[in-house]
Structure formats: structure tokens, C-alpha cells
């Protein structure tokens, strides 16, 4: 139920009674361009990133319009959260640019109010939007994106199985005792399955190096995970025991054999969600599974993405700082100039973030540095601009 005008008036009165007049005035100036920015950047983003593709699928692939509308609204939170930092930048640029061009900043400074105090409401608002962005990014966006993917696949009959169907490969590392008595982390087992149908692994080959050097080879027609025993049940296979000189010591054929191997190949076979469909907790769980498989490229990529998920909300703060500092410069910038400047700054930041993230995935930068370097650089630029504006 919509709030009545009297309720809104009383709420604003309650708010204005509890915060200083200067902060209340600047926040009132910041909110309209912020809401305009959220609407404008969300509209542009979703039109380019989702709407055109949905229209193409309606006309070419026969996607029902009702399903397209459902996917459109499920995609909306993703673009909404992307618009928050950009809207903060636009609102601070426009608000402080207007205050500067109307000489209100000169009037405030002549009363002894510093630039740092004048931009404080914008920084506080940016912190609030940072928290809002984090909540959206963790609680709403992953679930909505995942639901949108499932809805679209079901409508287009493109449902992919929730597991990897071919070439399940797993390398197990462990502590191996050395001849001198010490232990070192070495490869102890290689697990390969040619196919997986969601229940059974088929065409298996296992190389066992757990006793220093290759000591047995297991081949089997199929294997299933025994939930009660926490073991693998192998069927119709052969165990080749290898002696220290590399010759076959014995060959054992079996119809049913239980082997104590980790469950990890089954976890690796399960197809995980895409990065945009996982919360930080879900991404951490996937990372723990990937680390058991020692696929360094996937591990590195996910580590960078997790750090980027932590870093992204803080773009609101640095954009708020940069926008405030630039807006307080003596100028007569129009709203269109502020909008154009926002687009250039946003492009520059995301270009830097893209390069930094790529360097992280190439192992040139650490995952932490890859995600937080653009934040640090932009924060430094914002502080420098603010100090110069305050002189």
C-alpha cells in the first residue's frame, strides 16, 4: 500500500529535525539525480545486455512473449545493481557542479565551512549505496540470474544436464613419505572417466602413485558412488599391480570391487553455476571443490571473481568521492556535460578493472590486487582532487 502524503511529510519532517540543515539540503539535492541515474543507466544497460537478445529470440526462436517478459524482469536486478555506482557518480557531479555554478559553494566557504565538510553528505550517501549494492549482489542478483537462465533454457528446450557428460578428469595430490623419512606433497592418483550419465561413471582408468611411482592401474567398465559406505563400487574391471621395476607383478580381474577413493570426481562432474549466478558463499564452496582437482586456471579465475565480488560495492564510495571533488571545482557545467563526464569516467574505470582482472587471471597480479587495484587507484585520484579543491 502506498504511503499517504501526510506520512511522507511527517517522515521528512522527522528526518530534517535530526540531521544538520546543510546535510539535509545537500541530500535533497543528491537524491533526484541519483534516482534519474539509476533509471537511465539501468535502461541503457538492460536494453543493450538483455532486451535486444530477447526480442531476437521472440522473433527468430519463437520464445513466448510472456516468458521473455519474465526473463526480462529476472535480469533487471543485475543491471540495477550495476547502475548504482554510476548513478552515485552522476548525482555527485551534477549536485556539486550546480552548487558551484550557482556560487553556493562560495557562500558556504565564506561562512567557514570547508570542502571536506561540504562533501561529507555525498560520502555518507555513497556508503549507504555501497551497503545496498552488497545486499543486492549477494541476496537477489545470483538467484534472479540463475532463475532467468533456467527459465530461458526450459522455454527454448535447451536444458543442459546439471553435470559434465564427458571426460571427467581428476588429479589427487597428497603427502608422500620420502626415503629419508620426510613427507612431500606429490601426485598420488589420476582418475579418468570417459562418460558420466548423472549416476554412473563409465570407461574408467585410475593410475595409483601413492607408494612412490606407479604401483597399480585400475580399469573398469563403470563405477557408482556408494553413499552408505562412502566408497566407489567398481564393476567389470581389472587391477594391474606394478612392481618397482615397472613390470606387471599381478593381474586381478573382478566383477564387483569397492575402492576407497575420494568423492571429488563426482563433485567435479557436477556442473556449477556461472559466476554471475553464485553468491560469495556459493563461489567459495565451488572453489573448495576446484582446489581438490588442481585445475589452476579455473581456480585462479574463480579466486579473482570472488575478490571482485567483495570489491565491486566499494566503487560507489570512490565514484562518490571523485564526483564530489570534480563537482566542487569552479565551473559552469551543464547537466549534459556532467552526464558526458560520468560516461567517460565510468568507461575509464571499467577499462582499468578489465585489464587488472585479466592480469589477475594470467597470474601476473594476485587475485586480491587484481580486484582492488582499480579501487585503490581511483580512490587515490579522488583524494588528490579533493585536496586540490580544498586549497
What would your notes on this structure say?
By secondary structure, the protein is of the alpha+beta class. 61% of the residues lie in helices and 18% in strands. It is built from 11 helices and 6 strands. The chain has helices spanning 5-18, 21-60, 65-101, 104-110, 115-155, 264-269, 280-293, 296-311, 315-327, 335-361, 367-390; strands spanning 166-177, 183-196, 200-208, 216-226, 231-242, 248-259. A 6-stranded antiparallel beta sheet has the order 1-2-3-4-5-6. A hairpin with a 3-residue loop joins strand 2 and strand 3. Helix 3 runs antiparallel to helix 5 (115-155), helix 3 packs parallel to helix 9 (315-327) and helix 8 (296-311) runs parallel beside helix 11. The longest helix has 41 residues, at 115-155. It is elongated. The protein starts with a helix and ends with a helix. The model has no long low-confidence stretch (mean pLDDT 84).
Task: Provide a quick synopsis of the model.
The chain has helices at residues 5-18, 21-60, 65-101, 104-110, 115-155, 264-269, 280-293, 296-311, 315-327, 335-361, 367-390; strands at residues 166-177, 183-196, 200-208, 216-226, 231-242, 248-259. Helices cover 61% and strands 18% of the residues.
Count the E strands: 6
Provide the structure class.
alpha+beta
Strand sequence of the main sheet, in spatial order? 1-2-3-4-5-6
Computed Rg = 29 Å
Low-confidence stretches: none
Estimated helix fraction:
55-70%
SSE order: HHHHHEEEEEEHHHHHH
Average the pLDDT over all residues and give the rounded result: 84
Give the helix tally.
Answer: 11
Assembly classification = single chain
What gross morphology would you assign? elongated
Could you describe the largest sheet, including whether it forms a barrel? 6 strands, antiparallel
**What distance lies between the first and last C-alpha atoms, to the nearest angstrom?**
50 Å
Strand content: 15-25%
